[in-house]
Specification:
Blueprint lengths: L1 H18 L3 E6 L4 E4 L1 H7 L3 H4 L13 H12 L4 E9 L5 E12 L5 E10 L1 H28 L4 H15 L4 E9 L5 E8 L4 H4 L8 H7 L5 E3 L26 E8 L5 E9 L7 H61 L4 H29 L8 E4 H15 L4 E5 L5 E5 L1 H17 L6 E9 L2 E7 L7 H4 L22 H11 L3 E6 L5 E8 L2 E3 L3
Parallel strand pairs: 12-14
Antiparallel strand pairs: 1-2, 1-5, 3-4, 4-5, 6-7, 6-10, 8-9, 9-10, 11-13, 13-18, 14-15, 15-17, 16-17
Helix pairs in contact: 5-6, 5-9, 6-9, 9-10, 11-12, 12-14
Bound molecules: adenosine-5'-diphosphate.
C-alpha cells in the first residue's frame, strides 16, 4: 500500500516536472546530467536521451565556464542560488538568456550529492529590456542634440553638430548633411557639413548629383536604408560614373533621411555611409527621423532669426538714409534763406530754388506717409470720374518743371475718355515713373509716355534712354527700400517710389512691370481695368 502510494506520488511529481514551462535539470556534483525534462529538450534542443550522462558544461558558453565553479562551490556549502541571470547556449549554438534557480540535492544522510536546476527562458524579457535601454539611450541622445542646438542661430554650427552626433549614433563611418540655403539676396546655394571624412573627400565631387539613389531624399520621399547600396536596383543607373566616382568614400551600407522644413519643402538631407554591409538597423530609423525633424525646426528658426536681423539692419539703414534725405533739402533751404536775408536782391532768384527743395521734402514725407498707410493696410482709394488726358498732361507738366534738360514727349489716345479711378493716386504713379525715367537718364535724352485704352483697360508706358536695369535686379526693384547700388551715379531717392506705385496699381486691380536692357533704357508699363466712357464733347 505504502509502495503504491509512493509510486503514485512519484508519477505525479514526474508529470509536474514534465509539464513545467521551465527547464528542470538535475546533475551530480561533478556536473553530469542525470535528469532532463521536456522543457529542457525544447529550450536547449537536446533530446533527453542525448543529454543524459553529458556534462552540464555543454550548455555553458566558453566565456562563462567559470560560473560553474562558483555554482558548485555554493552547492557544496549547501547554498541555494536564486534567479541568477545568465546566458546558455542551445544545441544550435544560439545564446539563450535564462534565469537560473539551483538547489542542492542531499542524500538521506543530508550530504549534498547533486543539484536541481530550474531554468527560465528570459530571452524575450531581455530583448524588451534591451529595447527599453536603447530607447532611453536614443531619447537621451535626442535630448542632448536638441539642447545643444536649441539656442544656436548659426546654421553651419547646427548642421555640424547634427551631422557629428547622428553619425556617431547610427555607427556610420561617415555622415554628411546637405542643406539648401537662400542668402539675403534670394540666391540659393548649398551648404554641407561632413563627419568622419575630410572635406577634400567630397570637395572634388561637389554636390551629390541628382541620381536615382539621391533623388529619393531630395524629393522628400522619406527615410531610405540599404544594407548594400551597390546591390540596390537604383544604383549605378546614372551617367557618367554608373555608381560612385573613382576616389569616392567607400559606401556599402547606406542611410539617408530628408530634412523637411515646417512649411513642407525639402531643405536638405542627412546621409550616412559605411564600408561594410548591413551596418544600419531598423532601430536607427525612428531616431534619425526625430533628429531630422529637430534639425529642420532649428534650421528654420535660425533662418527666421537671420531674416529678422536682415530686416532690422535694413530698417536701420533706411532710417539713417531717410534722415539724410530729409536733412539735405533742409540744409539747402537754410542756406538760400540766409543768402536772401543777407542779400534781399537775390530773393526772387532763390525763391524757385527754395520751392524746389520744399517740393522735394514734401515728396519724401508723402512717400513715408504712404508707406505707413500701406503697412497699416489703410491705403484708401477715392474713386471718381477723371479725364485720362488731364491726369497725363498734369503729370508731364509737374515733371517738366523740375527737369528742364529732358525732352518729355507723349502720345495720347485721340479721344479722351473719362475713367473711374483715384485720379490723384494714378497721377502720383505716372509722376513717379516719369521722375525715375528722368533721374536715370542723361540730360538731353528723351522720355516718351505712351497711353492707349482697349477693351476694359488703359495702359500707360514710360520709355527712357537711360542706364537701364540688369535682369537680376528686375524682380527686386518693386520691393520696399530697394535701390540698385551697382554702377549707378548718386541719385536721390529712398527706394520707395516703385513699391508705392505697385501698391496703388494693385489696389486698382491692375499690373505694373518693367522691361529693360542694361545700358539701353527702360520701359515701365502700367495697366488697369477701368470703367470708362467717352468724354462729353
Ligand atoms: P528711388 O527712385 O527712390 O530709388 P524707386 O522705388 O522709384 O526708388 O526705384 C527703385 C530703384 O529702381 C531705383 O533706385 C533704381 O535703381 C531702379 N530704377 C527705377 N526706375 C528706373 C529707370 N527708369 N531706369 C533705371 N533704373 C530704374
Amino acid at each position: 500500500m505504502i509502495q503504491e502510494d509512493m509510486e503514485q506520488r512519484r508519477m505525479i511529481l514526474a508529470a509536474i516536472i514534465d509539464s513545467s514551462e521551465d527547464a528542470i535539470i538535475s546533475k551530480s556534483l561533478d556536473g553530469i546530467i542525470v535528469s532532463w525534462n521536456r522543457s529542457a529538450e525544447r529550450m536547449f534542443g537536446y533530446p533527453e536521451a542525448e543529454a543524459l550522462g553529458k556534462h552540464i558544461s555543454m550548455l555553458i558558453p566558453a566565456d562563462r565556464q567559470a560560473e560553474e565553479d562558483m555554482i558548485v562551490a555554493n552547492l557544496r556549502a549547501g547554498k541555494r542560488i536564486e534567479h541568477f541571470q545568465t546566458i546558455r547556449v542551445n544545441k544550435a549554438g544560439e545564446e539563450i538568456h535564462i534565469s537560473l534557480t539551483i538547489s542542492p540535492i542531499r542524500n538521506q544522510a543530508g550530504v549534498v550529492v547533486g543539484a536541481s536546476k530550474i531554468a527560465r527562458d528570459i530571452t524575450e524579457q531581455k530583448r524588451a529590456e534591451e529595447a527599453l535601454t536603447r530607447h532611453n539611450r536614443h531619447m537621451e541622445a535626442i535630448n542632448v542634440i536638441s539642447k545643444a542646438i536649441a539656442g544656436e542661430i548659426d546654421e553651419e554650427k547646427i548642421l555640424q553638430r547634427v551631422t557629428d552626433d547622428s553619425t556617431k549614433l547610427v555607427g556610420a563611418a561617415f555622415g554628411a548633411f546637405f542643406y539648401n540655403k537662400t542668402d539675403t539676396k534670394g540666391e540659393s546655394y548649398l551648404l554641407f557639413t561632413l563627419s568622419g571624412a575630410p572635406m577634400e573627400a567630397f570637395e572634388k565631387f561637389g554636390m551629390p548629383r541628382n541620381t536615382a539613389v539621391f533623388s529619393k531624399t531630395f524629393k522628400g520621399e522619406g527615410l531610405y536604408r540599404s544594407d548594400d547600396i551597390t546591390k540596390d536596383p537604383n544604383y549605378g543607373k546614372n551617367k557618367p560614373y554608373h555608381g560612385m566616382p573613382e576616389g569616392h568614400l567607400p559606401v556599402v551600407s547606406y542611410l539617408a533621411v530628408p530634412v523637411i522644413a515646417p512649411s513642407g519643402g525639402v531643405t536638405g538631407g542627412l546621409f550616412f555611409g559605411h564600408p561594410e554591409k548591413g551596418k544600419f538597423l531598423a532601430e536607427h530609423e525612428g531616431l534619425l527621423q526625430t533628429i531630422s525633424s529637430i534639425a529642420a525646426v532649428t534650421l528654420n528658426k535660425a533662418k527666421l532669426y537671420g531674416e529678422v536681423q536682415a530686416l532690422n539692419a535694413k530698417k536701420d539703414e533706411f532710417i539713417s538714409f531717410a534722415s539724410h534725405e530729409l536733412k539735405t533739402p533742409l540744409t539747402t533751404i537754410k542756406g538760400y534763406l540766409q543768402l536772401a536775408e543777407k542779400m534781399p536782391d537775390l530773393t526772387t532768384e532763390v525763391m524757385p530754388k527754395i520751392n524746389k527743395q520744399v517740393n522735394r521734402l514734401s515728396a519724401i514725407i508723402g512717400d513715408l506717409l504712404d508707406i505707413s498707410k500701406i503697412q497699416a493696410g489703410a491705403l484708401a482709394l477715392n474713386y471718381a470720374p477723371a479725364s485720362l488726358h488731364l491726369i497725363i498732361r498734369e503729370s508731364i507738366e509737374t515733371v517738366k518743371a523740375f527737369s528742364p534738360g529732358h525732352f518729355l514727349e507723349f502720345e495720347l489716345p485721340i479721344r479722351d475718355v473719362q475713367i473711374f479711378v483715384d485720379g490723384q493716386k494714378i497721377g502720383q504713379v505716372i509722376i513717379n515713373l516719369l521722375a525715375n525715367a528722368v533721374k536715370f537718364s542723361k540730360s538731353g535724352s528723351t522720355v516718351l509716355l505712351k497711353s492707349i485704352y482697349y477693351g476694359d483697360f488703359i495702359r500707360v508706358s514710360v520709355h527712357d534712354q537711360g542706364i537701364g536695369i540688369a535682369d537680376k535686379e528686375m524682380g527686386k526693384i518693386f520691393s520696399r527700400f530697394y535701390r540698385i547700388e551697382e554702377g549707378k551715379q548718386k541719385t536721390e531717392g529712398l527706394g520707395l517710389g516703385l513699391y508705392i506705385s505697385k501698391e496703388i496699381i494693385e489696389a486698382h486691380h491692375g499690373y505694373i512691370w518693367a522691361e529693360s536692357e542694361l545700358g539701353k533704357g527702360a520701359v515701365f508699363t502700367l495697366e488697369i481695368p477701368v470703367e470708362y466712357k467717352n468724354m462729353p464733347a
